[in-house]
Amino acid sequence: MSEIFDLTTRPDAQVFYQRGDVNDPRLGEVVSHDPTHYDSADVVILGCPQDEGVRRNNGRTGASAAPDLIREQFYKLTPFNIKKKIFDLGNVVIGSTLEETHETQFQIVAQLLRDGKRVIVLGGGNDISYPDGVAMAEVFGPEWWIGVNIDSHLDVRIAEQRNNGTQYRQLLDEKRLLPTYFYEVGYQSHLCSPVYYDYLRDNGVHRISLELLRSRAEADIEIKEQIRQKFIGHSSSLNTFLASIWTLCVRQMLPARLLLRRWVCERVNSSNL
């Protein structure tokens, strides 16, 4: 356990909002960051404050500030209906290269999973999906986890250096993520290369465009039922199986985020999660 604390920096105490009202507590007063509380935690929050992958992909930098900005807002919310114990581990120690940072993040996430924790990783560039996926494959095996990419882009680029658009190509090509266990949700056709779309189609990846989502009144229920029908045989309990699902990347795309909100809430509040 001590290694994960050596590989991370402690969260800034100022992000933990304190209202001081016993009748209206906030998450900043409930979530612990005291290392002595790690063992009893059910859910662990980890930040990765880097955007090197975004820079490599000629994108707009600035995502490195996101983990603490997310915390500032998150910890102002109420803990309504949250029954699990949440622990904030802090941020990944950033290396001199993206590859070094990914290796550190992989080690941390893998240990968290071995310790039986449910993990929420805050980016940072969405290339953080790669070390998260490697950790899932290492701990559970490729046949025991699902990747769901909610994004306007497909993120299966070919590039000389890994970046924030190559992570799922890496996971698929390295066979850490099975194509039939991968869902591309909310992509926008005018932002996606036909070459990369054909790669996903030819490999049997599930593809659900934003246009399709908007044409369905209950798209979130349809997606959940599709996954349930395909994978229910792995477990006698849907919730037990869904507890192993790792949503690799949730980008700032409002329609897709809203349609999955109910599903995520069900999973967080599940007695088996």
What does this structure look like?
Helices cover 39% and strands 15% of the residues. With 273 residues, the chain is α/β, with parallel strands linked by helices. The protein has two domains: 1-124, Arginase, Chain A (3-Layer(aba) Sandwich), CATH 3.40.800.10; 144-273. Strands 1-3-2-4 form a four-stranded mixed β-sheet. A four-stranded parallel β-sheet has the order 7-6-5-8. Helix 7 links the parallel strand 5 (147-150) and strand 6 (182-187). Helix 5 packs parallel to helix 6 (129-140) and helix 6 (129-140) packs parallel to helix 7 (167-173).
Descriptors for this entry?
single chain, 273 residues, alpha/beta, Arginase, Chain A, four-stranded mixed sheet, four-stranded parallel sheet, disordered C terminus
Which outline best applies? Answer: globular
Taken as a percent bin, the fraction of beta residues is: 5-15%
- Our measurement of the CA-to-CA distance between the termini, rounded to an integer number of angstroms, reads 22 Å
Main β-sheet, spatial strand arrangement: 1-3-2-4
CA radius of gyration is 18 Å
Tell me the count of domains. Answer: 2
Q: What is the element string, with H for helices and E for strands?
A: HEHEHHEHEHEHEHEHHHEHH
Which percent range fits the helix content?
25-40%
Write down the overall mean pLDDT.
85
Broad structural category: alpha/beta
In DSSP terms (H or I, runs of 4 or more residues), the helix count works out at 13
Low-confidence stretches: 235-273
The largest sheet is: 4 strands, mixed
β-strand number = 8
